[in-house]
Amino acid sequence: MSNQDQDPKNQEIVENRELSIWEALIPIIALVGMLAYNVFVFGDDALSGSNQFILLLGAAVAALVGIFNKTSFDTMMEEVAQNIKSTAGAILILLMVGALAGTWLISGIIPTMIYYGLQILNPSIFLAACVVICAIISVATGSSWTTSATVGIALIGIANALGISLGMTAGAILSGAYFGDKLSPLSDTTNLAPAMAGTDLFTHIQYMLYTTVPTVTITLIVFIIIGFNIETSGDADTSVILTAIDDAFTISPWLFLVPAIVIFMIVKKTAPLIALLIGTLLGGIAALIFQPEIVATLGGSETLSLESGYKGIMNAITVDTAIETTNENLNDLFAASGMAGMLGTIWLIICAMTFGGVMDAIGALARISKFMLNLFESTFGLFASTVATCIGLNATASDQYLAIVVPGKMYAKAYKDKGLAPENLSRTLEDSGTVTSVLVPYNTCGAYQSGVLGVSVADYFVYAIFNWLSPFMTLIFAAFRIKIRSLKEAKAF
User: Fold this and answer.
1) ∠275-278-284 over CA atoms, to 5°?
2) Nearest Cα to 174, choosing from 309, 1, 353?
């Protein structure tokens, strides 16, 4: 879930009747080609800035197509402005996540989570435990973003200390986080999908269980098997790591109060942005109480004073912070970039939304969706077309909301004409739109999660089992007509 100020239900789908399917595909083909070459040249450094500019070049190609089809430049810029405006909440959350990570590091909250986690979590079940823990918290909060920004960061730290692949761990975290986000009645995507399809929230959630439970079960089984077959370096070094953490920080179970308060606030439907702000401030207060020496050092003084305390906390919130320990591996772990560290991700989101805005303004998104709708005539074909459109929009429009809103509006009548209950559509929107957004590096969700967890999409893609398995599961159910409810059954129910 990414929190956006603009109500996605009110977004209009722009349609240009003069646009042909080939014209609509020109910007996408150009973008994919340029991104492929750019990644070939820059490799893992492509997201440092060059991919962002490629997205702007893709938007320029789309604008040329739009001008050729008599779409005014002002119309395109207005749509881009609306797109970027809709990400204002997400951008503020990103900044606040950076701030929270800084204060939770210097206060000892994250080190404390790692300290106790090393003693509690057995490496052989660690990955499966990540799925379960994140699923529970995400169901309670309704937010995959908040889950990864709090518990997810701590689990990444524990995995690093144990020598477990960060790609595997991030995949397990996201599998659990999106399971909860997808099913939680507090999630905006869980509310948006049935609204677009024309069914009610709890019918939607109930119907999603049919495909979601088998998918998460398979995911857990795979991670359990992986867990019993991976080699970890954590067992032999745990005592050394624990000693290093204990020497660098004051470890106390009282520090768990801060994340507990944040989670409680979100469960009570406090806006995540407010909860994260309060969590950041509480982290700063905890730092002054439990880690005064660290705060003083960050403030440029040997002893804590009002000035050094203020400066130390502000530095942790805004810029790079690093806490040295006697263990070199932990030195890399106990480093945060504050709000400044999120600017690259924000840059990526703005460029992605620029491309998506121009594509929407010229009518390309609507044209591609209609084309996909006309490709298939069978019931399975309708489901397949919906899945392909959702995934395609996540890749082209770079936003999970558009991946729900556009297909929801385009396919609602088609499902009705086929005699299918609207919950079939709402479930498919979630199975293919919500969960796959995190698999696209320049999508708002992919950019956010990779930025927060510090693991690239390429590294966690294969291990985000729940996310890529979900669309296959919904297609399997459609192919074998499993739990495909008709309109007659829905009315009787």
Assistant:
1) 140
2) 1
| Angle, CA 310 vertex, CA 307 and CA 316 arms, to 5° | 135
Q: Tens digit of pLDDT per residue, the chain (493 long)?
A: 444 444 544 555 555 556 888 888 899 888 878 877 886 787 657 667 787 898 899 999 999 999 988 888 999 999 999 888 877 877 888 788 889 888 988 999 888 887 887 676 677 788 999 998 888 888 867 788 878 887 888 888 888 878 889 999 999 999 999 998 898 877 878 888 888 788 888 888 889 999 999 999 999 999 999 988 877 665 534 577 788 888 889 999 999 999 889 878 877 777 778 888 999 999 999 999 999 999 998 888 888 889 999 999 999 999 988 888 887 766 766 888 889 888 877 887 788 788 888 988 998 877 876 776 677 678 898 899 899 989 988 887 777 877 887 788 778 777 887 888 999 999 999 999 999 999 998 888 898 899 889 999 999 999 999 999 999 999 999 999 888 888 776 665 5
CA 131 → CA 151, 217, 220, 274, 295, distances in Å? 11, 10, 7, 26, 34
| Distance separating alpha carbons of residues 127 and 225, to the nearest angstrom | 10
Compute CA distances 488 → 371, 420, 421, whole Å: 29, 8, 8
Q: What would you report as the CA-atom Rg of the chain, rounded to the nearest whole angstrom? A: 23
Using an 8 Å Cβ cutoff, are 199 and 421 in contact? Answer: yes
